[in-house]
Design brief:
- By secondary structure, the chain is α+β, with helices and mostly antiparallel strands.
- It folds into 4 domains: 85 residues, Arc Repressor Mutant, subunit A (Orthogonal Bundle), CATH 1.10.10; 36 residues, no CATH class; 71 residues; 74 residues, 2-Layer Sandwich (Alpha-Beta Plaits).
- It is built from 9 helices and 13 strands.
- The chain is elongated, with a radius of gyration of 29 Å.
- The termini are far apart.
- It holds the Pfam family HTH_PafC.
Length: 326
C-alpha cells in the first residue's frame, strides 16, 4: 500500500504552487512523473496542483474572470498522456524583465565566470545563460568574452584542479627574475584586465600570487595537490605587502581611491591636497607602478620618490615617441 502523505497546510501549498509554475514554464512540456520526481512528491499531488493552476488567474478590468484571465493547459495531453503543457500564462508576463542589452551584459559576465577554475559546475552556468536569453524582453546581442593569452594557462589550471595534481611553471617576477615554481592552485582572480593565480608555492612553502601573463611553460605534474582551497585561509586582499616593497606617494582622485585599496599600507596616512587624496602605496617594483598608473589615466599622479617619477615619466615618453614615429 502506498504511503499516504500528510496534507499540506495552505502556506505550504502556496509555496509549492509558486515553485511549480515557473518550473512548468521553463520546461514547456514535461510529464507528471518527471515533475513529481523533481519536487519529490507523489504524482497525484502534481496532478491536483496543475488542476488548481488551471483555475487560477487575475480578473480583468470588469472584475470578472474572462477568457485569457486564467492559466490554461493542453487538457487532452494532460488527461490522456499525463503531459503538462501550459498554453496560457497570466500575470507572469507582466513581471519586470531584463532588456536585451542587460541580458547580454549578464551573459558576458557569466562567460567570464565560467573560465574560473573554482566554478566547476559549468553546466549550471550554461543553463542560467539560456534562461537569461529566453527570459529577456528583447533578443540579447550575440556576445563573447575575448580570448586572451592567459586562456591556455587557465585551461591548465582548471585541469590541475579537476585532476587534483600540482601545476609547474616558469615565473618572471616583478624584479625580472626567473624561477621554476611548483604550485597547488587555490583561486584565480582578476583585477581589470590582469589575471592572477593564488596558490600554495612549494618553493616558498607559503601562499603566493602569480600574474598569469608572467607564467611560462606551464605543465601538469603527476604529484597530488597537498593543499586544497578548504585547507588554506586566503586573505581578502589580493596583494600582500613584504619587507622588500617600495613605497610610492600618489595623488589620486577621491572617487578612484578605492581602486588602490589593496596597495595602500595599513599604516598609511592620507591627506587632501588640492582636491585630491595624497596617500602611499606599496609596489614590488617600479615596473609594476607603471602598469598601475597606466590603468588609471588622468586620475593618478606620482608625487615621489624622484626615481619613481622618473621611471613613469620615461616610460610614458617612450610610449608617446612610438606614436610620433608611426
Amino acid at each position: 500500500m502506498a504511503e499516504r502523505q500528510a496534507p499540506l497546510h495552505a502556506q505550504d501549498k502556496l509555496a509549492f504552487l509558486l515553485s511549480l509554475v515557473p518550473f512548468l514554464m521553463e520546461h514547456e512540456r514535461i510529464s507528471v512523473q518527471q515533475a513529481a520526481e523533481h519536487f519529490g512528491v507523489p504524482a497525484q499531488q502534481i496532478r491536483e496542483a496543475v488542476k488548481l493552476i488551471a483555475v487560477s488567474g487575475i480578473p480583468g478590468e470588469t472584475g470578472q474572470y474572462q477568457h485569457g484571465d486564467l492559466f490554461d493547459l493542453a487538457w487532452d495531453d494532460f488527461e490522456e498522456n499525463d503531459q503538462i503543457v501550459l498554453t496560457n500564462l497570466v500575470a507572469i508576463d507582466d513581471a519586470p524583465r531584463f532588456s536585451g542589452r542587460e541580458a547580454a551584459a549578464l551573459i558576458a559576465g557569466l562567460q567570464y565566470l565560467s573560465a574560473l577554475p573554482e566554478n566547476a559546475d559549468r553546466g549550471a552556468i550554461a543553463t542560467l545563460m539560456t534562461k537569461l536569453s529566453r527570459g529577456a524582453s528583447g533578443v540579447p546581442s550575440q556576445v563573447a568574452v575575448e580570448a586572451s593569452e592567459s586562456d591556455a594557462t587557465l585551461a591548465l589550471i582548471r585541469e590541475s584542479v579537476a585532476t587534483g595534481v600540482q601545476l609547474e611553471f616558469d615565473y618572471l617576477n616583478a624584479r625580472g627574475e626567473h624561477e621554476r615554481r611548483r604550485v597547488d592552485p587555490l583561486r584565480v582572480e582578476s583585477v581589470d584586465a590582469d589575471w592572477y593565480l593564488r596558490g600554495w608555492c612549494h618553493l616558498r612553502e607559503a601562499v603566493r600570487t602569480f600574474r598569469l601573463d608572467r607564467i611560462g611553460n606551464p605543465q601538469i605534474t603527476t604529484a597530488p595537490i597537498a593543499f586544497h582551497p578548504a585547507d588554506v585561509l586566503l586573505p581578502d586582499v589580493l596583494f600582500e605587502g613584504s619587507a622588500d616593497d617600495l613605497i610610492v606617494t600618489l595623488d589620486v582622485a577621491p572617487a578612484a581611491a578605492p581602486l588602490l585599496a589593496d596597495y595602500i599600507p595599513d599604516d598609511a596616512v592620507s591627506t587632501e591636497v588640492n582636491g585630491r587624496l595624497r596617500t602611499a602605496v606599496r609596489v614590488s617594483h617600479y615596473h609594476g607602478l607603471k602598469r598601475l598608473v597606466a590603468g588609471m589615466p588622468g586620475v593618478v599622479t606620482v608625487v615621489g620618490p624622484p626615481e619613481a617619477r622618473r621611471a613613469v615619466a620615461e616610460w610614458a615618453a617612450a610610449g608617446a615617441a612610438r606614436y610620433e614615429a608611426d
